[in-house]
Queue: 2 jobs
Job 1
Amino acid sequence: MGVRVTATAPGVVKLFGEHAVVYGKPAIAMAIDKGVRVTVERQGGDSLLVVARDLVVRGVAIRVTGGSIEGSVIDGPQLAKLASYALTALRIVSEGYGGDLKGIKVTIESQLPIGAGLATSAAVSVATTVAYAKLIGVELSREEVAKLSHKVELTVQGSASPMDTATSSLGGVVYIKPGVELRRISAPPRLPVVIGHVERELTTGELVRRVKELYSRHPKVVDKIMDSIEVVVNEALAALGKGDYQLLGELMNINQGLLEALGVSNHRIANMVYMARRAGALGAKLSGGGGGGAVIALAPGVEDKVSVAMRLAGGEVISTDINDQGVVVQH
Ligand code: MEV
C-alpha cells in the first residue's frame, strides 16, 4: 500500500447517440488524449482535503473535517463541482472496500475545458476511483471502475447514462447500450475530427430534463426520433468499422438534425456546425448535452480549414486524438 497514487483518465467526445442513450438506446463515444490527473495521498491529520485546479491556474480547495466542510474557492463553481465528484468517489469506494478517509488529500488537475461537454466530471470520477482504490490496495477491473464511477455521477447529478464514465475508463472508441452491452469497437486508428466548444447556456441535467418534458408532451413523435437515433448509431458502428468517412459524415449530420428536433441545439452550435460544413467537413454535430458545449466535425484533409471556420463561428478549438489507454495509474 503506497502513500501516494496518481491516476489519469481521458475526457470523452460523444460521436453518436447522446440523449437517446438516457432512454436505453445505444451510443458511440471516443476517449480523447486530454483528460484529468488525480493524485490521492495520505498526509495524516483529521481532515479530508480536495484541491482542484485547471491549466488556467484557477483553483479550489475544500477541507472536510468530521461533518463540516470548509472551502476556499479561487474560481467559481465549476471547479468546486469537480471536487464534489472526487469526494463522492472516495465515499463510494471506501463504503465498498474500506479505508479511512481521514488524512486523505486529493489533487485534481484538469487539461479539459471544464463544462464544455468533454466529460471532465466522468474523468475525475474515474481517476479518483482508481487512485483511491490503488492507495488502499484494491485492484479494480476497468468494468468495475466504469460501474463505480457511474454510481458517482448518479449520486452527484441525480441522472446520467453510463456512457461517459465507461468510455473514460476503457479508452478507445466505445459502443454502449446501457445494461446490455459495453465494448470497445474497431475504428480507424486516428479519426480526423476537429472539436470546438462554446459556452453553455444550460447544464446537461437541465437539457436531459428538457428532453424528458418534450417526450411527455409528444410521446409518439419523440419515440420515433429515439428509434431513428438508434438506427443512426447502428449504421455508424458499421461505417466506423470500414473507415467510411463519407457515410460517417452523413450520419453525423442526420444525428445533428435529430438532436435539433429534440431541442438541445442552439444558434451558437448551429453556427459552428454550418461553418464547419462549409469549410469542407463531411459531417458536424453537437457532442454531449448541447445548449452550447462541444461540437465535433469530421474533416479528413481539411482539419485546419475547419478549425479556422469554427473559431470564426465563435468557438474555441481543441486539437485532439484518440486516447487508447483509458484510465491508467502512473508509477
Ligand atoms: C452527456 O454527455 C450525454 C447525455 O446523453 C447525458 C448522459 O448520457 O448522461 C446528454
Job 2
Amino acid sequence: MLPNTDLVTLNGYINQQERKFPKAMGNLSGLLRSVGLAARIVNRELNKAGLADILGDWGTTNVQGETVKKMDIFANSHFIAAFKRGRRCCGIVSEEDEEWIMTDEEGAQYLVCMDSLDGSSNIDVNVGVGTIFSIYRRLSADHPVSKLDFLQKGAEQVAAGYVIYGTSTMLVYTAGSGVNGFTLDPSIGEFCLSHPDMKIPENGSILSVNMGYAKTFPQGIKDYIDYCLAEDKSTKRPYSVRYIGSMVADIHRTLLKGGVFMYPSSADAPNGKLRLLYECNPLSFIMEQAGGIASNGKQRILEITPTDLHDRTPIYMGSKNMMDKLLALYKGW
Ligand code: AHM
Ligand code: MG
C-alpha cells in the first residue's frame, strides 16, 4: 500500500488560504507563522519542565498582582520576540505587561493581544496549559498607534486562537471563516491539520465552573447550576462537572465534547477574573465560529467595548442549547 502523503501543515494551510486573496500582503499569514514558531519553542521547554530549572515562581507579581511563574516569563519573552522578528505587528498587549508594547514596526497594520501562558499555576502539577492570541487591524495608519487602537470590540478581531500544551500540543485558530485545529507532530516539528472545520455540539452534558465560589454567584447562575445538577432522565441530567482551572484546556474540551464553561461574577470578583482582551475575546471568537455562544449574561462578549487593556468580564460560553437555557434563567447581573 502506498504511504499516506496527504499532509497539510500549518504553513501549507496558511499559504492555501492566502492564495484565495490575491491582493493579500502576507501580513496575517506572517503573524500566524510567528505564533506557530513561538508555540513550538514553548512546547519544547514545557516538555522539559521538571528536568530543567524552569518550574516554580519567578519571585515577582504581574500587573494583576498574581505570582509570576518562570515559564510565564519564558513564554512571554518568546512570543514577543517572535512577533517582533516577524515584523508584521506594530503593538502587543500581554497579560504580563501593564502597558502595551511598541514594536519597531510603526508602519505595520496589525496588533496582537495575548496571554502567552494561560493556566500557568497548573504547570507545576503537570496539567495542560495554553497560549491565547487575538489579532486586530490598527484603527488607522494616519496617526501613531496608541492605546485606543487596542480598545476595539472583539467583533473587530481579524483572527484569534489558542495553543493547548496537553497530552499532545494543538494550535486552533479562526480567521473568521470557521475554526481549524492543527496537532504538533513532534517528529517533524510541524503543526498538521488534524481537526478541520471544528464545530461545537449543540447539546452538551458537561458544566465547567469553579464551584468553590458558587455561594456568591448571581441568583440566575445558581439557578442554572441547580438545573444542571438536578436529576431528569429525559434530558440526561445531572450533568457532569469538570473544571481543570486552565481556561484553554476547559474551552478545548467544551469545544470538542459540548458543554458550558463559565467564570461568573462573585462577591470577591464583581467582574469575574478573566480578561476581556486576551482571554475572553479570542476564545469567544473561536466559540462563535464553531457554532457556540459566548456572553456576559447581558450581551455577546464580542460586543463589549473595552475601557482598559486589562479589563475583566464575567463569561458564559458553550453549546447553543445549554447556553439558551442558561440565558433564559439569567438576565445579567
Ligand atoms: P492566568 O492567566 O493567570 O493563568 O489565570 C487565568 C486562569 C484561567 O486559565 C482559568 O480559567 C482561571 O484562571 C482559573 O481561576 P480559578 O482558580 O479562580 O478558578
Ligand atoms: Mg490567562
